Amino acid sequence: xxxxxxxxxxxxxxxxxxxxxxxxxxxxxxxxxxxxxxxxxxxxxxxxxxxxxxxxxxxxxxxxxxxxxxxxxxxxxxxxxxxxxxxxxxxxxxxxxxxxxxxxxxxxxxxxxxxxxxxxxxxxxxxxxxxxxxxxxxxxxxxxxxxxxxxxxxxxxxxxxxxxxxxxxxxxxxxxxxxxxxxxxxxxxxxxxxxxxxxxxxxxxxxxxxxxxxxxxxxxxxxxxxxxxxxxxxxxxxxxxxxxxxxxxxxxxxxxxxxxxxxxxxxxxxxxxxxxxxxxxxxxxxxxxxxxxxxxxxxxxxxxxxxxxxxxxxxxxxxxxxxxxxxxxx
Length: 330
Hints:
Layout: H1 34-60, H2 66-75, H3 78-91, H4 94-98, H5 109-137, H6 140-170, H7 175-178, H8 181-205, H9 210-240, H10 250-277, H11 282-311, H12 314-321
Helix pairs in contact: 1-2, 1-3, 1-6, 1-8, 1-11, 2-8, 5-6, 6-8, 8-9, 8-11, 9-10, 10-11
């Protein structure tokens, strides 16, 4: 039997030439239901940001901000009341959720996230409950100072809640999520503050302080600018690491339309138009706030879907795993 020549040169990831066994993917996509988990991530960011904004408004003590503080405290319950059930549903059994309380692992974003959500839920419920008692029974003598005290740890936990989900995704082996962890955290965090400010601005325009609504609109647009900068940084990193193909996939196309177009460009255009119209531009400002909320939700779902696309591409996973600046073996 004739000898079959064998190429014995090393075939580690630094020598990857684009081929895999019958073109099969090296990684499996994350087992998340993107719409369900994306909804949870959106509500987590919205709730955390709303709590932070309302806390800052209360501590600053601006005249006429009482309605904003009240709405922010109630809005912060969106994650505990709606988001947590979505998360447990995606885990398929409550046991997987409460079993996470058996350990505290600082190196695990999932473990840290569980405790952040728990801490935020407890303090947010306590603050909102004190607010409710003050609204209904007029017991401001003790409920108001108590709520001012409990809102601070709620805001601290809210900061973690608004950004930890990006760390959770970045800790996986999915190329699109792991390639630019800092940029993804910036995008999720800025989007959270934009959505929180947008939701509170709608409340102010529907029966609150129009001047305060204008300030919230400005804050939301500033957050969108930061989100846009994070988007540019992430796409530059994807190009440098050779995994840009997933950015041009169908999920990424949804991101460009739903996030870049509806979530960022449209609110800016509507804000400019409302400024030209003056007092008659309130409806445009509301529409811009709704566009920000839609873009924030789309960002989470599209990033998760594009990440799945990158996991299914062996070209991306092998190229991303390739060590940088490794000399070729001759």
